[in-house]
Design brief:
By secondary structure, this protein is an alpha+beta fold. It has helices at about 1-15, 20-40, 45-55, 70-80, 140-145, 200-205, 225-235, 245-255, 260-290, 290-300, 305-335, 350-380, 380-385, 400-405, 410-420, 420-445, 460-495, 500-505, 510-540, 555-580, 585-590; strands at about 60-65, 85-100, 105-115, 125-130, 135-140, 155, 160-170, 190-200, 210-220, 240-245. Strand 6 and strand 7 (about 160-170) form a beta hairpin.
Length: about 600
């Protein structure tokens, strides 16, 4: 217990002395694990919400849609309700195909004639207002959200203006805009919303000779035997098409099918940025803690105790970041999974498998990136660690004539890159990951926008909008992490090269040249990283692209890459300028 308390106290004191570095580590890992948890949780999430909605609203196992209300339809429905496999049914209900306008938007709509008291199968849950009554209309919640209508607003259905008396959620149809199930007379369907009207009000629709279908909601004794039931009733004499609850889950999931690859691939890129940032942070911390290691060795600390002190901090912060990321995914998931709000939300957080994966990733990032610097610090001789002398650079006499011809900032930048080529490679890869995401963002935003409305751009494609929202979120997270990494790398490089930069200033280099040299150490690898990111970004989009995919102009892509490099230059200037103003005398006297 004494060793454990000692380790915890040392870790706590180090975090309190360097809260900014701990915050950067938490930010990097929280964003990466949160995005990974969210992407991993999307698989099967729609099914969870649909099952919950189906249980609350007594949703049907099968919906039989007949293209009319003829005697053949009546015979088919009688055979279906008389099947011993059917435990209960509701209907038949007439469904009319019409058009609806509201607040400047026009859409196709299906109007279902609803009883004042719903039957045993399909009891829509009223989420605001009341259920249908004569002279009023209830709008399916997802459709109402897309239209922007609320209780008390008026909508025009088939030329008749009616007040909205309520909004409701049902599992008897797929989410907006797939409410038709099948089109008029059994033909192809259009993007449509759903409203319910009283049987008295739908008589006016029947008088206008609108296309009509007949709906029968069936509850089976064995819901898992839905496909066998449907197969048994298919045939040329059956005047109906069938929509099972499994089909509705698959159809509902199409709204978010583009979100999962964006989030999963985005989490990979974010994880890489987290690795790059944590590795740089760990290397800088190891350099700063060299004297601390020497002090621990001087008072008799064993290598195991020193390793525990250095690693426990990163492992603890990684676990906290993992918990924060999972918590963020838990609260964000309902918004991502249910963009149409056509289903009822439920507490479907990340599964045990997702939690295991994110925890392993967080610990792996923390351990793999800090193990090398920790081992180097442990193997440092006690006297050398206490003196904290700078590392002597390698001599390359053949490069001296070439270096003499370079401008001072470029010379200093190349020298820093040559001493730490791995860090320069990570910086280039960070910029590449950022440009990949920005390129994908531009590709998605130049695609032709699909509208669910009738000659109305106000009802845009929810699927496209969802993909845009996800790629914007991923791009924003990547830009933030890349900015944090750039600041961290510049400041760490400036700290580690403080003796070299002090010698350069003593030999005549100005603070401006030192600042430019520190910035050049980040910009020189950033330029090829940005250029490589353009084709890789297009390659990233290619597997998810259709034959008619539109790509942005080349100057857009190169402009985005150039903007990334310019932002990198601006970010490096601040810490580089601060480091360049450090006193030369103090730095050299500390190294003496």
């Amino acid at each position: 217990m004494g060793r454990i308390l000692l380790v915890l106290r040392l870790v706590r004191s180090d975090v309190r002395r360097h809260p900014g570095q701990a915050a950067m580590l938490l930010l990097s890992l929280t964003v990466a694990t949160g995005m990974l948890a969210l992407g991993g949780s999307l698989g099967g999430a729609t099914e969870t919400l649909y099952r919950h909605t189906r249980a609350v609203t007594a949703g049907p196992d099968v919906v039989a849609v007949s293209p009319d209300d003829s005697s053949a339809t009546t015979a088919t429905q009688a055979s279906l309700t008389g099947d011993p496999a059917v435990a209960a049914h509701s209907g038949p209900y007439l469904q009319y195909y019409s058009k609806l306008t509201a607040k400047g938007s026009a859409s196709y709509v299906v109007v279902t004639a609803a009883a004042a008291k719903p039957g045993p199968v399909d009891r829509p849950l009223v989420t605001s207002g009341t259920w249908v009554r004569p002279g009023g209309v209830v709008v399916e919640r997802g459709f109402a959200t897309a239209l922007g209508v609320h209780v008390g607003d008026h909508v025009t259905v088939a030329g008749r203006s009616l007040p909205v008396v309520g909004t409701a959620v049902s599992a008897a149809t797929t989410v907006y805009p797939f409410a038709q199930l099948t089109g008029p007379e059994g033909g192809p369907s259009d993007y449509s919303g759903l409203v319910w009207m009283s049987e008295q009000d739908t008589r006016a629709l029947a008088a206008e000779d609108l296309p009509v279908a007949s709906l029968l909601y069936l509850k089976l004794r064995d819901p898992d035997a839905t496909q066998a039931f449907v197969n048994a009733h298919r045939g040329p004499s059956v005047h109906a098409t069938f929509q099972s609850w499994q089909f509705m889950i698959g159809q509902d999931a199409t709204i978010i099918e583009g979100s999962q690859p964006i989030l999963v691939v985005g989490s990979w890129l974010l994880s890489f940025l987290a690795i790059a940032g944590v590795a740089t942070l760990a290397a800088g911390r190891a350099t700063r803690q060299t004297r601390r290691v020497g002090l621990l060795k001087a008072v008799g600390a064993t290598p195991g105790l020193i390793a525990a002190v250095l690693l426990t901090e990163y492992v603890t912060l990684a676990l906290i970041a993992d918990a924060l990321g999972l918590l963020a995914a838990r609260f964000t998931q309902p918004v991502v999974v249910n963009p149409t709000v056509g289903l009822l939300t439920t507490s479907a957080g990340p599964s045990g498998g997702v939690i295991t994966v994110t925890t392993v990733v967080a610990l792996a990032v923390a351990l793999l990136t800090t193990l090398g610097p920790t081992l180097r610090a442990m193997h440092t001789e006690t006297v050398a660690a206490l003196s904290d002398t700078p590392r002597r650079p390698d001599q390359r006499a053949r490069l001296t004539p070439l270096a003499a011809m370079l401008p001072v900032p470029v010379l200093l930048g190349l020298r820093l890159i040559a001493r730490r080529p791995g860090r320069a490679f990570l910086q280039a890869c960070s910029i590449t990951a950022t440009v990949i995401t920005i390129t994908a963002l531009l590709v998605i935003f130049v695609q032709r926008r699909v509208s669910y409305g009738i000659d109305s751009p106000h009802l845009g494609s929810l699927k496209d909008a969802q993909s845009r929202h996800m790629i914007v979120a991923v791009a924003a997270a990547l830009v933030v992490l890349a900015a944090v990494n750039t600041l961290t790398t510049t400041w760490t490089t400036a700290w580690e090269a403080r003796h070299t930069m002090a010698v350069a200033r003593a030999l005549g280099a100005t603070p401006g040249q030192v600042t430019a040299g520190l910035s050049a150490a980040q910009l020189l690898p950033a330029v090829p990283g940005a250029v490589v990111g353009i084709p890789l970004g297009i390659a990233f989009c290619w597997p998810f692209s259709a034959a008619n995919t539109v790509y942005p102009p080349a100057w857009w892509l190169f402009g985005a890459a150039l903007a990334t490099v310019l932002v990198t230059a601006a970010l490096t200037a601040v810490p580089a300028r601060i480091a360049a103003r450090r006193s030369v005398a103090q730095t050299l006297s500390a190294a003496a």
